[in-house]
Amino acid sequence: MKFRPFRLSLLSLSLLIPAALCAVILFLLIYSAPAIGFNGLGFVTGVTWNLGNLYGDPVTARGFTVPAGADYGILVFVTGTLVSSFLAILIALPLSVGAAIFLAEAVPPRLRPVLSLLVELVAVVPSVVFGLWGIAVLIPLIGHYVSPSGNGYGLLSSSIVLALMITPIIATTLLDALMRVPKENRESAFGLGATHFEVVTKAMMPMVRTTLIGGVVLALGRALGETMAVAMVSGGALNILPTSLFSPISTIASFILTQLDSAQSDPTNMAVRSLAEIALALFIITLGVNTGAKLLTSGALNVRKRQS
Questions:
Q1: Distance from the CA of 138 to the CA of which of 64, 75, 245, 307 falls in 20 to 30 A?
Q2: Residues 240, 76: contact at Cβ < 8 Å?
Q3: 238 lies in a domain?
C-alpha cells in the first residue's frame, strides 16, 4: 500500500472539527449528568431558578446532595432565547434581502465594492459595542416613545440589537449568490418582457433560495448564542415568562454569563452542573435548527430538480 502523507494529513485535519464537536458533547453530557439526574424533565418545563440556601447545610433530594430549596427550571430562558432570535430574524430578513438586492441591482459597479465592504464591516463590530449602543440610544427611545411602562429593557430591544448584528450575515451571503446568477438568465427574462422587479423575484431569487436559507441559519445560530449584547439590554428576567414585546427576558447564553459567578458559590456544585445542562440544551436547540435547515434545503433542491 502506497503511503500518501498529504492525503493522510488532510484526513487528519478534516477530522479535527467533528472530533472537537464530539468532545464538547461528551464533556457536557458527563459534567451535567448529576444535574440531569436531579432535575429530570422538570428542568425544561419549570419556570423557577432558585439556587437554594447556599449558606446552610446541604440536603439530600432525589438521591443527590443539593442546597436546601434548590430548584432549577429553564423554560423562561428557552422561551427568551427562541422568541428573541426569531423576532430578530423577522426584522433582519427583509432588511438583508433588500440590502442585497439593492447592492446587486441598483448600485453602480464602481460603488458596489465600497458599499458591500461597509455592510461586511458591521458584522465584525464587537457585540459589546452593540450593547452599549442599545443602552445609550435604543433603550431610551423605546422607553420614552414606545413602551407603555417607560422601561426600554426587554424583548423588543434585544430583538432589534440581535437583528442589527445578524443583518450583515444574511445580506453578504445573499449578495454573493446574486452576483453569481448567470447573466443569461437575467437577459432571457428581460427578453421575455419581464420587469426589473419580476426578473429579481422570479428569475434570480428562486436560484439563490438555498443560499438564502443557509445565510438565515448562520444568522440564527449567531442570534441563539449571542451573550454580551443581549445581557446588556434584555432586562435579566428571572422566573418570569415574557408576556409582551416590552417584557424583560433572559436568554440561555446571557443567563449562563450572568449566573456563573453565583453558581460557583454552591458548595455542592449542582448549580454549575445545571448551567452545563443549560449549555447542553442550547446545543441541542442549535443542532435542531441546523438539521431543520438542512432538511428544508434538501427539499428546495429536490423541488428544483423535479421542476427542471
A1: 75
A2: yes
A3: yes
